[in-house]
């Protein structure tokens, strides 16, 4: 018997909030992955159609080859880092802040 069956088909406010929280987390993760993929695709297209590009350097340290795959990796990793650091800080803070409600 599940929690849904035990309550007569009605969701408790706590389980509804938890469900909405999981849906929100899933949405943010899918959006994060999609935006990282867009960055990689933009890098791939840039490396394919723009000639005379210099070698990109990730974090000004790690050189990538001046090929379409090198630019795709550079674009994907750059967006993953730029979006991932603030997102991880939001997750960290949200887990430690009491709702107070």
TrEMBL record:
Pfam families (UniProt xref): DUF7520
Region annotation Disordered: where it falls in the sequence: 1-21
UniProt keywords, alphabetically: Membrane, Transmembrane, Transmembrane helix
TM annotation in the entry: 29-51, 71-93
Domain of life, source organism: Archaea
Name under which the protein is recorded: Cox cluster protein
Taxon lineage: Archaea, Methanobacteriati, Methanobacteriota, Stenosarchaea group, Halobacteria
